[in-house]
Amino acid sequence: MRILIADDHRLIVEGVKLKLTELGPDTSFVTAMDMAELRAAIHAPEASSLSLALIDLAMPGVQGSEHLAEVIEHLPQVPVMVLSGSEDGALMKSLLAMGVQGFIPKAYSPDIMLSAVRLVLSGGVYVPPLLLQERADGPVSAPAAVAAQTASSAADSLEERLRKLLTERQIDVLRLLSQGKPNKLIARDLGISEGTVKIHLAAIFRALNVRNRVEAVVASRRISGL
């Protein structure tokens, strides 16, 4: 197993390498500390043998998320995960929507990072819990209680609407999608083709009024019946 780690902080690189050696004795690493080194790593002849790329969002020589898009485009078979000091939900959503398969805030523990990496290596998508869970910041005020009740009612009506708009098989696809499973695993679990999964996903996106699988996952977490 070969893992690319791109980060301009040597201590972080070494810490990540140390933790990821727990994946197995055959784990090896390729490192990059700026855009030039990252580009060289993904264009190297042996780049196709990479099992995973862990990439910092902010590195010398990069602009926005263009470096992530370049890796995803050049190595479409290699899952890409982001390491970042940011915990901005909108940023996480946008990166997951563009094809990143995991977002790990640097404030998270090494054990969480290892679990997230294992999930992605097994074909899943790691979505940080803070992106999915509702805020619980102490006692609920009266307006907040009304809002929570309204949200609950909305979730119930959403579930009812989905039951009317989607077939049982499409509900099964949505349930597996909410678990972070990619199309290939959904197809295998349900005994259908990936093409059929894509057709079902199109119907699910329309029913949920979302644009992509990340928004669908977030919406599905509000549905108790899944």
Features:
alpha/beta; 226 residues; 53% helix
Continuous helix count: 11
- Average predicted confidence as pLDDT: 82
Q: How much is the radius of gyration in Å? A: 19 Å
Largest sheet: 5 strands, parallel
Question: β content, as a range?
Answer: 5-15%
Description:
The protein is α/β, with parallel strands linked by helices. The chain has 11 helices and 5 strands, in the order βαβαβαβαβααααααα. The chain has a 5-stranded parallel beta sheet, sandwiched between helices. α9 crosses α10 (194-208). The model is unreliable at 134-156 (pLDDT under 50).
Draw up the topology in text.
Blueprint: E1 2-6, H1 10-20, E2 28-32, H2 35-43, E3 52-56, H3 66-74, E4 80-84, H4 89-97, E5 102-105, H5 110-121, H6 129-132, H7 142-165, H8 168-178, H9 183-190, H10 194-208, H11 213-220
Parallel strand pairs: 1-2, 1-3, 3-4, 4-5
Q: What is this structure, in a nutshell?
A:
It contains eleven helices and five strands. By secondary structure, the protein is an alpha/beta fold.
